[in-house]
Prior knowledge:
The complex is a heterodimer. Chain A is mostly helical.
Amino acid sequence: MIAIRDDRDRNAFAALFDHFAPRLKGFIIxxxxxxxxxxxxxxxxxxxxxxxxxxxxxxxxxxxxxxxxIARNRQIDIAxxxxxxxxxxxxxxxxxxxxxxxxxxxxxxxxxLKQALSRLKPEQREMIEKAYLGELTHxxxxxxxxxxxxxIKSRIRLGLQRLRHELKDLDQ
Amino acid sequence: MSAITHHPSxxxxxxxxxxxxxxxxxxxxxxHVSLCGQCRATFEAHQAVGGVVLEESHAVPVSxxxxxxxxxxxxAPFAPEPVYERSGxxxxxxxxxxxxxxxxxxxxxxxxxxxxxxxxxxxxxxxLYIPPGQAVPDHSHGGLELTLVLQGSFSDETGRFxxxxxxxxxxxLEHTPIADExxxxxxxxxxxxxxxxxxxxxxxxxxxxxx
Lengths: 172, 211
Ligand SMILES: [Zn+2]
Ligand SMILES: [Zn+2]
């Protein structure tokens, strides 16, 4: 993803496509889109990834998390014909050095999260999938306990604090 | 800026990250996340879970033409979507709902003003301007009401709410928010059902006429 962002590397983008496009298609079909529309959405999402690559910040998000958000945005924009409200972006300090330990930490936390999900009972796992496919309201999510968040929250928060120190204009 | 003490619930942030909050509530939650580092971290954690769900999705082969079409478009010119940034007390998502304009206040009486950003079957989202010491009429709720303070502060039966604080009210709460002394209070308020105002006059007459 960094090669796509910084070097506009098409081979890297092709590899990303080969990995994510079929998963995106499966994900989109599961959330109710007919197969032909699913391919259109996959194409839109992949094009958005290419065009918005400069926004990707590996200190704060895994590639899969970033793509997940783009895919949900696209699905919602199509379903509701209005733009989904998103928070203001945190801007990266231009030329700020990548913090390898922060990026690695996030990767490790995401790996643990993946393992935690794989250990769930099938019914629990299905509940999680439904929640993140947008099939549960917040009331229904409230009724479900134990979304496996604890593992990665602290790490993402640390990254955020680091960023906030760098972004002096954020907290006027 | 004083610390934010009232936040959306984790379940609400999860539903927001999954794109499953009705539009008026999504505007308010997006605005809160824009102001609140703690909720941004939680929101991003939910995105990470969504990413794992995506990553682990059953792969369905895509047609070869999709790849060709996509790569043919990579160099095509495109108009980037407008990015709305914070302006004064209004965070980016409010500016987006405004399409970049300034608020157009309409007087509601007693110095209270409002500007309705959107209203449809999903509910409404509006800005409220409440002068210091002034109350929003006593009311109960037909559904959910989210109120985010953008300037000043207000207090009601449940506590005090300053800049960035989010009050969540539902059917169970009947309250009278009063703007604190000092600066006028500006709030972003979303509801998914009509508020039930208890007009002052009918209430006074209630014991006599049993309305
Ligand atoms: Zn918060
Ligand atoms: Zn209320």
